[in-house]
Amino acid sequence: MAAARRDGPGRKRRWRPVLLRNVVGSVQEGRGFAFRRKQKIEQQYRKLLKKRRQVHSQQDDQFTDTYPEHLKHLYLAEEENLKKRRRTPNDSVSSEEKLNKAAESVGTQEKVKNKTSNQKAKEEYEKIKAEHARKKEEAEKRKQQREEAQRLYKKKKMEAYKILSKKTKKGQPNLNLQVEFLLQKIQQNT
Q1: What is the pTM of this model?
Q2: CA-closest candidate to residue 27, choices 17, 40, 14, 15
Q3: Do 63 and 56 meet the contact criterion of CB atoms below 8 Å apart?
Q4: Across the strands, what pairs with 173?
Q5: Residues 6+ apart with CB under 8 A from 74
Q6: What superkingdom does the record give (predicted)?
Q7: Mean pLDDT across the stretch 169-187?
Q8: Helices (DSSP H) in the chain: which residue ranges?
Q9: What is the dihedral of CA 4, 8, 12, 18, to 10 degrees?
């Protein structure tokens, strides 16, 4: 009886490639979920462009609607001024430069605030690397200074040893040279 019921939970299903072709928006047709998402984004972009065109047209038509006859010349003059401002930058370059600098500083502050963890890690790594390089350089300087001081010390010791170890012909220590050396040493200290 169990062998007769093959459509139960133990039933094996056969793969049918024909069914996949019938599904609308399948990957085989090149219209998967990514394709739909792309279409949606394109549609939103077109909407935005359309809205912008409407806003610009409203701004242009702002002064041409209906002018009272006694104020018409004022509206037309204002419209010309606005058109000139749109075409050419402001006359005061310094104020524009100030605005640009302010915008740049705000932009850099935003960039600093919105750093990714990777950027933060890179900066931290660079700081540590620079600190290590600085410490290594300082250690190298100290080492060179120490070596130079040791070299000078050894040179002076050798000169003193040569003077103090001189002997007379009979093999006795030369006291005259020793006394002169001590005299020079005393004079250098005072």
Answers
A1: 0.34
A2: 17
A3: no
A4: 167
A5: none
A6: Eukaryota
A7: 91
A8: 17-22, 33-60, 72-87, 93-113, 117-164, 175-189
A9: 110
> Contact at 8 Å (CB) between 75 and 62?
no
Q: Measured at the alpha carbon of residue 187, what is the angle toward residues 153 and 189, in degrees to the nearest 5?
A: 55
Cα–Cα dist 107/130, whole Å:
26
AA identity, residue 56: H
Backbone angles phi, psi at 32, to 5 degrees: -85, -165
What mean pLDDT, rounded, does the chain reach?
Answer: 78
* Predicted confidence (pLDDT) per residue in 22-40, tens digit: 555 556 666 677 777 888 8
Name which of 94, 59, 95 is nearest 79 in CA terms.
59
- Predicted pLDDT of residue 96: 59
* The token pair that represents 19 in the structure block: 């069914």
Q: Is the pLDDT of residue 134 over 70?
A: yes
18 HSE (CA, 13 A, CB side)? 2
